[in-house]
Amino acid sequence: MLVVVTYDVSTETAAGRRRLRRVAKVCESTGQRVQKSVFECQVNEMQMEQLERALLAEIDETADNLRFYRITESAHLRVKQYGVFRAVDFEGPLVI
């Protein structure tokens, strides 16, 4: 399944800036960054649960915001892209 992860981490303190870096690293290990605080992740149910637990362990729920969006439309309707960035097609062939 395609999951979009978005976050807003309060960076008013040094601890907040460290949380921001840790949250980004967790997301980078699972998906691809499409905007500064937005990641697309192609995951199965188990990977989704692991990602959610890892991110919840990093954020401060009293100061930060974390959102998960499960994209359920058919593959050709999921994402419309404009501009220079082109996301990796996880379903397409792998070319090295």
TrEMBL record:
InterPro entries found in the cross-reference section: CRISPR_associated_Cas2, Virulence_VapD/CRISPR_Cas2
Pfam families, alphabetized: CRISPR_Cas2 (PF09827)
Key word Nuclease present: yes
Keyword tags: Antiviral defense, Endonuclease, Hydrolase, Magnesium, Metal-binding, Nuclease
Cofactor: Mg(2+)
One MF term in the entry's GO annotations: RNA endonuclease activity
Role according to the record: CRISPR (clustered regularly interspaced short palindromic repeat), is an adaptive immune system that provides protection against mobile genetic elements (viruses, transposable elements and conjugative plasmids). CRISPR clusters contain sequences complementary to antecedent mobile elements and target invading nucleic acids. CRISPR clusters are transcribed and processed into CRISPR RNA (crRNA). Functions as a ssRNA-specific endoribonuclease. Involved in the integration of spacer DNA into the CRISPR cassette.
Family the entry assigns: Belongs to the CRISPR-associated endoribonuclease Cas2 protein family.
Name the record gives this protein: CRISPR-associated endoribonuclease Cas2
Organism name: Candidatus Macondimonas diazotrophica
Lineage: Bacteria, Pseudomonadati, Pseudomonadota, Gammaproteobacteria, Chromatiales
Gene symbol of the encoding locus: cas2
